[in-house]
Amino acid sequence: MIRRPPRSTPKPSSAASDVYKRQTFEEVLLKGLADDGGLYIPTEWPEADISKLKECNSFIDIAKLIVPLFTESSYKKEEVVTLLENTWHDFEKSDLVGIKKINEDIFIGELFHGPTAAFKDFGLQLCAAFFNKALEKNNQTAIILGATSGDTGSAAIDACKEYKNIKTFMLLPEGNMTDIQRKQMTTVNQENVFVLNIKGTFDDCQDIVKSAFKDKSFLKHDQVLLAVNSINWIRIIGQICYYFYLGMQINNFSKELCFSVPTGNFGNVFACYSAMKLGLPVKKIAVAVNENDILHRFFSKNLYKKELVNETLSPSMDITVASNFERLIYDFYLERDAETCKNFFDNFPNSPISLSEDVWKKTYDLFCSSSIGDMETTEIMKKIYQDFNYVVDPHTAVGLCVSKIFGGPISSDLVVLSTAHPGKFLDSLKLAEIPTFEKHHTLSEVLNKDEYSYSLEADQDQVFNFIKRNNH
Asked: Collapsing DSSP states into helix, strand and coil, what is residue 453?
């Protein structure tokens, strides 16, 4: 069912056929990364039944048709449908997703109504439910080691904290994270949750996580290491579901939509692309980024080159290397030419990636991109509030910049993904002169709670040794 874009030459003792073999859904779930560091992707794209999707009435109905398309190699459809009935929990909206119509041309897809007020609740609650199912089936325990630039950590901790067979170690980089975002993680006082403040950048944290999947020396014999960053394919499946939900609610799949996705690690964009491959009517995917513009430079100039991180008002996008971008290069641009993809990413970031002009110009068929700074972000937040009496967070403001209202390329049928609740970004709301907003049901609680965390250098040995000491 699943293969991956290869990343490195197989070890001499391993036959290529073994390294590149198909994996079952459960194997992909429990591995996260492939053995050589590559990312998993479906061997073939399944086809969603649009006629059945048109008959759906809820997000869960949509999920029951989408998720089983990927799980049949490990679980019966009936098992998965039963699991999905209890997967998503503690959302303040009964149907999980909110939709706000700004005007005749712009819709906001509100993905922040879950317990941690960010879109990542969708993918990570799905991951957690399947993690627990697989671990119980195999009589195993697990360690989660993740890196977060804002919202992944809190969503992963919340999704997994009640499962006693899972211990979570979350790496937080120094710098640009709001107090609320940090405290959503550091105020969780449970024996199976460890929050590590790392003296380095998000990329430093991500490098440690990637090294862990090659090392694994800190695991006990009956343990597996689980990925919760968007490199985990199961997270992408959870996100695919809300794109179909938005299509169903807005026009019942009768017309192509343009989606603007504020992004850092590219997982949410790839989920949109995946939904299109399954059959969702998509006209254009807008890749919206802040000053950390590696993706915008690729989509506008055919140059994918790592640069230094800039701290911005939209911290979840303060990333210099978009891990999931590898999947798009492999599937969309290179049409699954595994060897060429391997060569690109084996040499990156030492060698920037530029495609041949004939290959790169495929961009115009589906993608556009934009990049804005903090001043423009604040102005968009202010204008949306003044003109439409609606409050958006800085990430959503970055997504809105693709609208023609703000000089962007998309004039109509635009759905902007709102990935985080504005209440997480109080300082940004002050800068935008926004006096009031509708509070989220969980955010205000964390500010007055005690914090529990540990400080470490950006050193994988320190992190691995910490896990060993606390892995009992």
From this structure: coil
- 161: pLDDT confidence band, cut at 50, 70 and 90? very high
d(Cα 130, Cα 164) in Å, to the nearest integer?
14
| Phi, psi of 208, rounded to the nearest 5 degrees | -65, -40
Q: How far apart are CA 182 and CA 149, in angstroms?
A: 10
Distance between alpha carbon 213 and the CA centroid of its chain, in Å? Answer: 19
Q: How much is the mean pLDDT over the chain?
A: 92
Which residues pair with residue 101 across a beta bridge?
A: 107
Whether residue 15 is predicted with pLDDT greater than 80 in this model: the reply is: no
DSSP string, 427-448: HHHHHTT----PPPTTHHHHTT
Q: List CB contacts of 37: < 8 A, sequence separation 6 or more.
A: 7, 8, 210, 213, 214
* Token digits of residue 379: 């102005």
In one letter, which amino acid is 266?
F
| Residue that the structure tokens 């140059």 belong to | 303
User: Cα dist. 316→143, 177, 297, 351, 393 in Å?
Assistant: 24, 8, 19, 26, 11
Give the catalytic positions in this structure: 120
